[in-house]
Design a protein that fits this description.
The complex is a heterodimer of chains A (271) and B (259).
Chain A (H helix, E strand, L loop, with lengths): L3 H24 L8 H21 L9 H28 L1 H6 L5 H28 L11 H25 L2 H16 L6 H7 L1 H9 L1 H13 L7 H4 L3 H4 L1 H20 L3 H4 L1
Helix pairs in contact in A: 1-5, 2-3, 3-5, 3-6, 3-7, 3-10, 5-6, 6-10, 6-13, 8-9
Chain B lengths: L7 E5 L6 E15 L6 H10 L4 E15 L3 E5 L6 H8 L7 E7 L2 E4 L12 H11 L4 H15 L14 H12 L6 E5 L7 H14 L4 E5 L3 H7 L2 E6 L2 E6 L1 H10 L3
Parallel strand pairs in B: 1-5, 4-8, 4-9, 6-7, 7-8
Antiparallel strand pairs in B: 2-3, 2-5, 9-10
The chains are: A mainly alpha (271), B alpha/beta (259).
């Protein structure tokens, strides 16, 4: 089938770009502040968590630059939830399109995750400004941050593919995922430091750090905010253990993409 | 989940081939849920009780036909006879369950006008979105942007949200974009059935311009259009081709169905 791909690849690119743009436009359609919400939402979540956990419950302990540390965690978490929730719903929301024209279905999922990526990029700028104001010294390790974000993106995409494909038939998945997200929020060290868990149980702290989301958040904190962060690399002890979160991401992405691809030809009938 | 049997749809770039489309032994059935509740709970119940939870509805059985290059083919049949399903399989929206569909060239389907139109976006934004769905880049859309609005006669509404358009206006805009699409094979479903008399005239002019220089498949209920535009027609009844050949002959057979 040589000769055809060129044409189709070009069309896929055009479609991906336009769907991403539409998605971004529609999300803040009819709101007074518009795109500003992409910035305000995570900042407000941060403000609430900061007041409750840092000021009232004094969870920050002796972590330097704790506000930046917390903001980094909440921003990455917002990205993960946005990416997965929107990605899972994407096929159903664009059902109209899927029933009427033929195109590679993954474009729909990828376009919603791109919107989340754009939001994250805007928020990262805020974090950097925040960090500099807070007295964090810029360092070469900042250059490693995109690598961690790429890992988190792969995980989110894998989950969106896998659950999104199941959600076409069983719409319960989207609701179940909302609950899972709530539970996951407490399983990931966003509001509490890992050191707090470690002082109670070293095993529990190690299990927490096997979670790819925790690994990514801690890595970014380590490379961006303070080297005094506990990461999978410096706490799990053995490189063979520390590599587990990354392997998990790989497995989720490959399984998700393959399952999605296999099911995608039925979407037009089932959605 | 049991793997389902699947036929194949092959797309080639071979535009020299005598047949633009070849359909061999095409069959298709849909799974219709037998229970009212449809979701995870029902799926688990059904599995536990050992019932299937759905029945197979045969829509197409053993369809064979060719579309020659440059031919204007009409497909007619009653509501629910399987025409639209056939069109969706040709267009690659549904997968063939049995048999093969070979498409030689680039096929552009208009199953419906204004696919992807969003009421919350402005006319301008919708034009670019709809254009992207037809495979046009931003730059290409820029080039034909003025023409699209002029043809639709809606220039003054460009920056209004689509939800403020009347349905007739939406159709005019959609049609005006659709006719820009360039493909080796055009697939059209009932697009003629909308609009006022003046708009119908524009549609007819467009179809007349296609006749002879473009491979077209047209699904329609209008025997007038079959006689006027088609080189050949096929009639589908209960998922089978029951009549094939001269437009005049097929149109007569079709009208007999309703006597």
């Amino acid at each position: 089938m040589s000769g055809i791909p060129n044409f189709f690849y070009r069309n896929n690119r055009i479609l991906l770009k336009e769907l991403t743009r539409t998605d971004f436009r529609l999300r803040y359609q009819g709101s007074v502040l518009g795109y500003l919400w992409a910035l305000l939402r995570p900042l407000m979540l941060f403000a609430i968590l900061y007041i409750v956990f840092a000021k009232l419950l004094k969870m920050g302990g002796d972590i330097p630059h704790y506000p930046v540390y917390l903001l980094t965690g909440t921003t990455l978490w917002s990205f993960f939830t946005e990416c997965t929730s929107q990605g899972i719903q994407a096929m159903v929301q664009r059902g109209e399109l899927i029933r009427k024209i033929s195109f590679p279905k993954y474009i729909v999922v990828v376009s919603t995750t791109f919107t989340a990526l754009i939001n994250l990029a805007i928020n990262l700028v805020v974090i950097v400004i925040f960090a500099l104001l807070n007295g964090v010294m810029p360092s070469l390790s900042w250059l490693l941050v995109p690598l961690s974000i790429f890992e988190l993106y792969c995980l989110s995409l894998g989950i969106a593919f896998l659950l999104g494909a199941i959600n076409v038939k069983y719409r319960d998945i989207a609701s179940i995922w909302e609950v899972v997200i709530q539970a996951l929020f407490y399983a990931v060290p966003i509001i509490y430091p890992v050191s707090m868990v470690a002082s109670a149980s070293q095993l529990a702290a190690k299990v927490i750090l096997l979670n790819p989301i925790a690994q990514v958040i801690q890595d970014v904190r380590h490379n961006l905010v303070t080297v005094e962060t506990m990461t999978s690399w410096n706490y799990l002890g053995h490189p063979a253990l520390a590599i587990i979160p990354i392997l998990l991401v790989g497995v989720v992405l490959v399984v998700g993409a393959r399952y999605f691809h296999r099911q995608s030809r039925f979407f037009a009938e089932e959605v | 989940m049991a793997r389902r049997k699947i036929g194949s749809r092959i797309v080639t770039a071979n535009v020299q081939e005598k047949n633009a489309i070849e359909v061999r032994g095409l069959s298709k059935s849909f799974r219709l849920p037998t229970e009212k509740a449809w979701g995870l709970k029902q799926a688990i119940f059904n599995r536990l009780r050992g019932v299937k939870g759905y029945r197979d509805q045969k829509v197409l059985t053993g369809i064979n036909f060719n579309v020659k290059r440059g031919e204007f083919l009409g497909i007619v049949g009653r509501n629910g006879s399987g025409k639209s399903t056939l069109l969706k399989i040709l267009s690659g929206i549904y997968y063939p369950e049995k048999g093969t569909v070979t498409v030689n060239g680039n096929l552009v389907p208009f199953i419906e006008l204004g696919v992807g139109f969003n009421p919350e976006l402005t006319g301008r934004q919708n034009v670019y979105l709809n254009g992207a769905l037809l495979g046009f880049s931003n730059k290409e859309m820029d080039a034909m942007y003025e023409d699209i609005w002029k043809f639709a006669e809606l220039e003054q509404f460009q920056d209004q949200k689509l939800k403020n358009y009347s349905s007739g206006m939406q159709v005019r805009l959609a049609f005006s974009i659709a006719i820009r699409a360039k493909g080796d094979i055009l697939v059209l479903d009932e697009v003629l059935a909308v609009g006022d008399a003046a708009f119908q005239q524009k549609c007819n002019d467009y179809f007349a311009s296609l006749k002879g220089n473009q491979t077209v498949i047209l699904v329609t209920h209008s025997m007038e259009n079959v006689r006027k535009f088609c080189d050949r027609a096929i009639m589908i009844e209960s998922g089978k081709i029951v009549c094939e050949g001269e437009p005049e002959k097929v149109a007569k057979e079709y009208l007999k169905l309703f006597e």
